[in-house]
Amino acid sequence: MGSSVSRRILSIALSGALSLTAAAVISAAPAGADPVSSPPLSGITASDGTRVVSVTPVPGVRRFDVTVYSPSMDRTVDLQVFRPADTSVPRSTVYLLNGASGGEDSGSNWPDQADVQGFFADKNVNVVIPRAGAFSYYTDWKSDDPELGRNKWTTFFTKELPPVLNDSLGATGKQSIAGISTSGSSVLMLAANAPTLYSSVAAFSGCARTSDELGQAYVKLVVEARGGGETVNMWGKTDDPDWAANDAVLQADRLPRIPYYIATGNGLPGFDENLQSPRINGNVSTLVDRVVLGGGIEAITNACTHQLADRFSQLGIPATFDFRDNGTHSWAYWEDDLHKAWPMLRDSIGA
């Protein structure tokens, strides 16, 4: 695919299809004992000032809305936390990152769009889903942005959050991380920047190649066209070394040798592109958007992921790459990807 053609597809697809993405826990208890599921603890405070500000139970489910203060950003961050059925012993943690919108908007986050509660119903693990950081790429920005504010997400996710949340949850300290779309790139760089933090990484439909011409166009359309921010405040001008420093393909040699599950479709219609799909709900316009725009984005992420696979092969990094023979940039496939990645995530953290 020529770069000019790719950029046209990208421009058309991302301008509309980034909005396309906007379009629990029982295991066997010891014999004779009833499982106990306790809430996270509030008030946990670290020496750097990070603290668990509040914990609010959600009626009828083992979910808690947790607010954590980040000193590096001087703001609170909202988390959705699903607890295991049995918390009588420490449990490990899986982080699920949302896409471009950070899950801030209604209907574009893991619990609303995927069967998170049902899927994890028989799995004794903490599931943590941040709902913040829209259009930030979950990275540390150079400067505050007039529209998107202060973004120090690498610092928050790798240094501030884990200690206080592990204490709040009574967790084992073992954790894995998974991301979709833009955060499918972010999770790789989070692992590169904190090589001992995560036990495994899963990335679905991400574009890890962020510093070449096409990658920069992709990032700018997310941050600037969709988010209203300025990438110069994130990684500087296009020739700034920070672009390459945050390119997971170029930085792959810094990645820890842990299990990876990396998946993408190719943009062709798949099992969820039909009018009977609950996510399409008989809407012809939604179906057309999914096929044309969502398909265009997924074709781009497919090309990016092939570059990442080639780089992993060069470096001898073992990983599972799943190049699906169809599928658009949409939640049905990410839900399926999570199911397929789960055995790797589970085994790596002993869940």
From TrEMBL:
Signal peptide, first to last residue:
1-33
Question: What are the GO MF terms of this UniProt record?
Answer: acyltransferase activity, transferring groups other than amino-acyl groups
Q: Which InterPro entries match?
A: AB_hydrolase_fold, Esterase-like, Mycobacterial_A85_antigen
Q: Which key words are in the record?
A: Signal
> PANTHER family of this UniProt entry?
DIACYLGLYCEROL ACYLTRANSFERASE_MYCOLYLTRANSFERASE AG85A (PTHR48098:SF1), ENTEROCHELIN ESTERASE-RELATED (PTHR48098)
Record-given protein name = Esterase
**Species annotation:** Rhodococcoides trifolii
